[in-house]
Design goal:
CATH architecture of the largest domain: Alpha-Beta Barrel
Largest sheet: 8 strands, parallel, barrel
Strand content: 15-25%
Distance between the termini: 28 Å
CATH topology of the largest domain: TIM Barrel
Number of domains: 3
């Protein structure tokens, strides 16, 4: 069973193929509010919910807010090629641009830049050097390439004067909540206060915040940001615009480990299977990249353009699933530090004990937990047990929010009356659903009395050997 989760961006190439992507292995659908219309987003949410119901398994919904991102405006013909040595203007406004210059959506861009600054377009497809900042930002093309309408414009984040959340972000957040998002990705976070601002807007709604690490400031402020986030996403394309590319792999390993140690999920994104935008198979280097993300301990990987605009969106999901499974089975399962910090609660102590038992006792086949809020399953995922975690919950929202957690397999169930009926329910579903063979040893984790206590129960149980089971 594949434990690393796959997040897929829904776009023109995949909007009509969502059921196929679910079948291929998609765990979470990402709806990118930087692109598309409100109607596109409504249809994407509806399509994912329908496919999830048909497949009989929860599929998470991730709304990705644009954040303080500068983007190019429209380009005549949709794209243009920039030649090295040529001049290129970033304009404060105007009609569709061309190879000479393109407007941006940040009218005050010239005030945020200085001559000599480096600018990357479209995750590094082209590199510019600022020559002057007057009405327009005049640049020299250092590295040429093809750029498209609405491509990102990366400038040093400490210079950017845009707020963490603008009016569009607030409107998109409202839409996301109304449509039933389980996760909200916050773009271009620079400090912990940015996350706190979003948390205040979400209020008491049980939506998880995925902080995108894509600025140099976010890396510097990572310790504080980790304390505010529910998950982090290494958005390596934009991050590479501010940090030398040779440093990104080490930052990835470091932040994923720190995220796991902080009890939050870690996602790796950008150009995972980039060649599959136009090819039916990934390159060997891309396969290694995905596998290394798994071995680094990522909870999930994200496919962006591969499934949004690529020619082979379903094949990309299948390829990602195959690589993740192979890395897990043949590369050695990632194990969090065996020397865990002292548990801060009964629930953490139970989770650590369960993980320790799975590593010491090869007869244990799985962990089953009953978790109305999802917190127990999140704790168990963080300590990285050797076996799969079956998370039982009567709440569909909880089950969908667990789709980002490595090794967690959400299982719907009815609300049990007491501890005995809870154990009977988990036993029956695991046995009758062919998830585990009769007699298999499973660790059961829950609270007792049900609904009236924190996680405080750890039981070694054999499937199909429970009193009252028929």
């Amino acid at each position: 069973m594949r434990r690393t989760k796959i997040i897929c961006t829904i776009g023109p190439a995949s909007a009509s193929r969502i059921p196929e992507m679910v079948e291929a292995g998609m765990d979470i659908a990402r709806i990118n509010f930087s692109h598309g219309t409100e109607e596109d987003h409504i249809q994407a949410f509806a399509g994912v919910k329908s496919a999830s119901e048909s497949a009989g398994r929860p599929i998470g919904l991730l709304a990705d807010l644009p954040g303080p991102k500068v983007r190019l405006g429209e380009i005549l013909g949709g794209e243009t090629d920039l030649e090295p040595g040529s001049t290129f203007d970033l304009l404060p406004s105007g009609q569709a641009g061309n190879e000479k210059g393109v407007p941006t959506d940040h009218p005050s861009l010239a005030e945020d830049l200085m001559p000599g600054d480096r600018i990357l377009l479209a995750d590094g497809a082209a590199e510019l050097r600022v020559l002057s900042c007057d009405y327009a930002v005049r640049t020299e093309v250092v590295t040429g390439g093809t750029i498209r309408s609405r491509a990102g414009v990366n400038i040093p984040s400490h210079r950017l004067s845009l707020p963490a959340l603008d009016s569009k972000d607030r409107m998109d957040l409202k839409t996301s909540i109304e449509l039933g998002a389980d996760f909200v990705a916050q773009s271009f976070v620079r400090r912990a206060e940015d996350v706190q601002e979003l948390r205040a807007l979400i209020g008491d709604k049980p939506i998880r915040i995925v902080v995108k690490i894509e600025t140099g400031m976010a890396v510097e402020e990572a310790d504080h940001i980790l304390n505010e986030a529910d998950a982090i996403m290494l958005a390596r394309g934009d991050l590479g615009a501010e940090i030398p590319f040779e440093e990104i792999p080490v930052i990835q390993k470091n932040l994923l480990r720190r995220a796991t140690g902080s009890g939050i999920a870690g996602v790796v994104a950008t150009q995972m299977l980039e060649s599959m935008i136009n090819a039916p198979r990934p390159t060997r280097a891309e396969a290694s990249d995905v596998a290394n993300a798994v071995l680094d301990g990522a909870d999930a990987i994200l496919l962006s353009a591969e499934t949004a605009i690529g020619k082979y969106p379903v094949e990309a999901v299948r390829a990602a699933a195959r690589i993740c499974s192979a890395a897990e089975s043949k590369g050695g399962e990632f194990v969090w530090e065996r020397r865990q910090p002292a548990p801060a609660s009964e629930a953490q102590a139970i989770a650590q004990a369960a993980a320790m038992l799975t590593h010491r006792d090869p007869s244990i086949s799985a962990i089953a937990c009953f978790t109305p809020s999802g917190r127990t399953a999140e704790l168990l995922s963080t300590v990285r047990p050797r076996v799969p975690i079956y998370a039982f919950s009567p709440s569909l929202g909880t089950l969908r929010r667990l789709t980002i957690r490595r090794g967690v397999f959400p299982v719907p169930c009815e609300e049990p009356n007491d501890t005995d009926s809870m154990i009977q329910t988990m036993d029956r579903v695991l046995g009758e659903g062919s998830l585990l063979d009769p007699g298999a040893v499973v660790l059961m984790v829950a609270s007792s009395p049900v609904g009236l206590a924190p996680t405080n129960l750890l039981k070694i149980h054999r499937i199909d050997q429970v009193e009252g089971r028929k």
